[in-house]
Amino acid sequence: MLDSARSLCVLGCGTMGRAIVGGLLRGAWLGPGQLIVTARRREVAAALGETLGVEASVDNLSACEGAEVVLVCLKPQRFAEVLDDPQMRAALSGKLLISIAAGVTLETLAGWLPDTALIRAMPNTPSLIGEGMTVLSRMAPEQAANPANLADDTHIALATQIFNSVGATLEVESKLMDAVTSLNGSGPAFVYVMLEAMADGAVMMGLSREVALTLAAQVFRGAAAMVLDTKQHPAALRDQVTTPAGCTIAGLLTMEDGRIRSVLARTVQEAAKVAGQLG
Prior knowledge:
The chain is built from 13 helices and eight strands. The protein has helices spanning 15-26, 42-52, 60-65, 79-83, 86-92, 106-112, 153-164, 177-185, 187-204, 209-230, 234-241, 247-257, 260-275; strands at 8-11, 35-38, 55-57, 69-72, 96-99, 117-122, 132-138, 167-171.
C-alpha cells in the first residue's frame, strides 16, 4: 500500500492536515508526488499547493478516486455532506479511510461507506511541532455489519506510520474514543490553563512574566518526560520531590484544599460527554 503515484489524499487539509503532510514529507515517509490535499476554496487550495509542494484540489471526489488511503480532516458537521454520497461510496470502495473527527463514530462512517476499511484517529495539537500523541481505533468484528469495514493489522500499521511522523501513536478499543478525545484532544488546553496559573503564582511572588512562563513550561515538559521515560507512577515521582516539612508538601496541601484532583478529573469527564455528542 502507498506505492502509487498518488497514494494518500488528505480531505480538508486544515491545520492538522498540514501538520501531518509536513511530517510525512520531512521524514521522507512519502514524496510530494504521492500526496494530494483538498480544500473548500480555490485560493486556499492554491496556497496549500504552493506551501506544501503537493497537488491541491477543491474536487474531493476526484482526489479520493486517485488515492489508496484517504485521511479525512473535515469538521464533523461536513462529514455527511462529503461522504454520504453514492459517487463517494464508489470512489472509496475497497480503500482505507482514516477519520480524525471528534464524535463521528465508526458505526456512522460504516453507514455511509459500507465497503471501506475504517479507522478513527484522535491526534492533538502538539503534532504541529512533532510532539503529538495520536490514538487509533478500529471496529471489532462483532461491531461490523459489513466485513469490508474491518481494518486489519496492515491498515493499523499504515495509520501508525502516518501519525508517527508527527509524534507517538497507540491503539485503543473504539468504545473509548470519547474519553480519548477529551484527554488527548482537549487535554493540551487543560494543561495550558494549569501552566498559566502556575506562572501567575510566580509572577505574584516577583518573577517576570517571561521567566515565569519559561519555567512553568519547562516544568511541565520535564515532569511529563519523567513519567514517560522512567515508567514510574506520578505519585512515586511526586514523593521524590516531597521532603518532610518542606515547601513542596505545603504547596500540595494547598492544591488539595482546592480539590484539584476532583476538578481535573471532572474536567476530563465533562469534555468526554460533550465529545460523544459532536457527531
